[in-house]
Specification:
The protein is mainly alpha-helical. It is built from six helices and no strands. The N terminus is likely disordered.
Length: about 150
């Protein structure tokens, strides 16, 4: 191959590599940022489950809407499954929307409310955490899980 042919092919290779890199970047952006219309089915499913959970929570106040929502989600996923069309909206709701909601709740609390709630629930939190850790440790021993995992 002559020096002239090598020089003439080098820019073409460089351009094709740049084109491939741009194409890869574009595909990554498309995957990480779904179109708003692709979020709609998952957000509608999430909203429907939330409304059902609120109704169950109102009907069974001891269970509550958050626990009912978790149970409904587990039941739906493990019995009927969730079609891929719902995945972008469910991912958005379970990550971004949930984080925004928690931040919004935090802005709605005063320091006095936080202190009062923290002191009132300190005993319940301590007992619950102790029971959870003890149960996990005992279950790990019973199932013969290696010590580093329990």
């Amino acid at each position: 191959m002559s020096a002239l042919s090598i020089a003439s092919t080098a820019p073409a290779d460089t351009l094709s590599n740049q084109g491939a890199a741009t194409s890869v970047r574009r595909r990554r952006q498309q995957r990480s940022q779904p179109h708003h219309s692709s979020l709609v089915p998952g957000l509608l499913l999430t909203s429907g489950l939330a409304l059902c959970a609120m109704a169950i929570g109102h009907w069974l106040p001891l269970l509550g809407a958050p626990v009912a929502g978790i149970l409904l989600g587990i039941l739906l996923k493990n019995t009927l499954g969730v079609a891929p069309i719902f995945h972008p909206g469910l991912r958005f709701a379970s990550r971004t929307l949930l984080q925004w909601s928690i931040v919004g709740l935090g802005f709605g609390l005063s320091l006095d409310q936080v202190m009062r709630t923290g002191l009132d629930s300190l005993a319940v939190t301590s007992i619950t955490l102790t029971a959870a850790f003890l149960s996990a440790w005992l279950l790990g021993k019973w199932l013969r899980v290696p010590g580093r995992l329990t």
